[in-house]
Specification:
This protein has 388 residues and is of the alpha/beta class. The protein has helices spanning 36-43, 53-61, 89-95, 97-101, 121-129, 143-146, 167-182, 198-201, 204-217, 252-261, 276-287, 307-314, 325-340, 351-354, 357-379; strands spanning 66-71, 106-111, 136-140, 149-151, 157-160, 186-193, 239-244, 264-265, 267-269, 295-299, 345-349. The chain has one domain: TIM Barrel. Strand 4 and strand 5 (157-160) form a beta hairpin. This is DUF72 domain-containing protein.
């Protein structure tokens, strides 16, 4: 599953190298008899890297409703960080998710391959079976319903897409199989819209109205059982979200339409979009005085880089190359605000954000834990002095 272009006192931690030792422990030998195929299959399982003390400490420090993760998981460069041995990207795409889900900090992941072609119920079910309870998936809708253009192999537009914003197709090829396969582990169903053609951007009102009609026609999402609290670690319903790549569409009109339909705005950090502070202002308009729904963030690309530039600079994605403390701080403050309000937080990072998505998650965990502690202290009621 290789990515493709289109996102209190604290323990000390290093963020420029692996956060876990690389345990090998594989064995070889001659095996005979009928049991050999089973032993061979077991030997091919992807091993998880032992978590570092820092990763364990930060995982415990985070509020339970904060889930951090990465965009996809099939990266051989994560050996010693997430995976215990060297594996091919195809091996990790097929069998690596269980080892990924064993990492204490990685409690969500973005399924990106669904953007390029619809997945079946069996595909989603296989993913869900590999991760623990409490894990949540961020899933990208197929481009067949979110891209206004049909594209050639290299991505160049060749014709209008007749299935653009086709709610019936979105329901049958995305929403229904996703929910049936992932079940309670479905977190956010994200409709990411690639850059739209000028003819659509020239009339943003018409696009917002059409988008509203699209969400009106989608199947309603399951709700948590009655009596469950919003800050429960394991029980909360999935949400629809949109991610845009045209900053001119980020308007009060769009946000009002989303609010009326209960659709979340996904903070998409990408060179084409404003910084997280401006996008946080859109969330404030969506939610009002206090957070009223999940926070969904996809940190896709370091500011100022194109996809291929970042990929070439950062491969094999085994270390932080370009730290972005400003973005980390902004996301940490935003996540702390939502977590303390009892809302779910889903943040997925890309290798192209800083160089290594799991190490970015470690840095974010540190910042979020510190921001939560600071916000709790600031909002705690003052103690009045007692009588003499």
């Amino acid at each position: 599953m290789t990515e493709r272009p289109g996102a209190a006192s604290s323990p000390a931690v290093s963020i420029v190298g692996p956060i876990a030792g690389s345990g090998t422990g594989s064995t070889t030998g001659n095996v005979t008899g009928t049991a050999a195929p089973k032993r061979a299959r077991r030997a091919r399982a992807v091993l998880a890297a032992p978590p570092s003390p820092e990763a364990l400490a930060w995982a415990q420090a985070l509020p339970p409703q904060v889930r951090l993760g990465t965009s996809s998981w099939s990266f051989p460069g994560w050996e010693g960080i997430v995976y215990g041995e060297a594996y091919s990207d195809s091996k990790l795409a097929r069998d690596g998710l269980a080892a990924y889900g064993a990492h204490p900090l990685l409690r969500t992941v973005s399924i990106d391959r669904s953007f390029y072609a619809p997945l079946s119920v069996a595909d989603y079910l296989r993913y869900a079976q590999q991760v623990p309870d409490g894990f949540r998936f961020v899933v990208k809708a197929p481009a067949s319903v979110t891209d206004a253009m049909l594209r050639a192999e290299r991505g160049e537009p060749i014709a209008d897409n007749p299935c653009f914003l086709d709610a019936r197709l979105a329901a049958s090829e995305f929403v229904t199989p996703c929910l049936e396969g992932l079940g309670a582990k479905a977190g956010s169903l994200v409709f990411q819209f690639p850059p739209l053609p000028e003819r659509i951007l020239a009339d943003p009102l018409a696009f917002v109205e059409r988008l509203g009609a699209f969400f009106d026609a989608l199947p309603p999402l399951p709700s948590p059982p009655p009596g469950d609290t919003p800050d429960s670690d394991d029980v909360w319903g999935p949400c629809y979200a949109i991610e845009i790549r045209d900053a001119c569409l980020l308007t009060p009109r769009l946000i009002r339409m989303l609010r009326e339909r209960g659709v979340r705005y996904c903070v998409g950090l990408h060179a084409r979009m404003p910084d997280p502070l401006r996008q946080a202002a859109a969330l404030a308009l969506l939610d009002g005085e206090a957070p009223s729904g999940p926070l969904v963030v996809r940190w896709s690309l370091h500011g100022g880089f194109k996809y291929e530039q970042a990929k070439a600079k950062y491969e094999p994605f085994n270390r932080i190359v370009d730290e972005d403390p400003a973005t980390r701080t902004a996301l940490a403050e935003l996540a702390a605000r939502y977590a303390i309000a009892g809302q779910p937080v889903l943040i997925v990072t890309n290798n192209k954000a800083e160089g290594s998505a799991p190490l970015t998650c470690l840095a974010l965990a540190r910042n979020i834990a510190a921001a939560c502690a600071r916000l709790r202290e600031e909002t705690a009621p003052a103690h009045e002095p007692g009588p003499d």
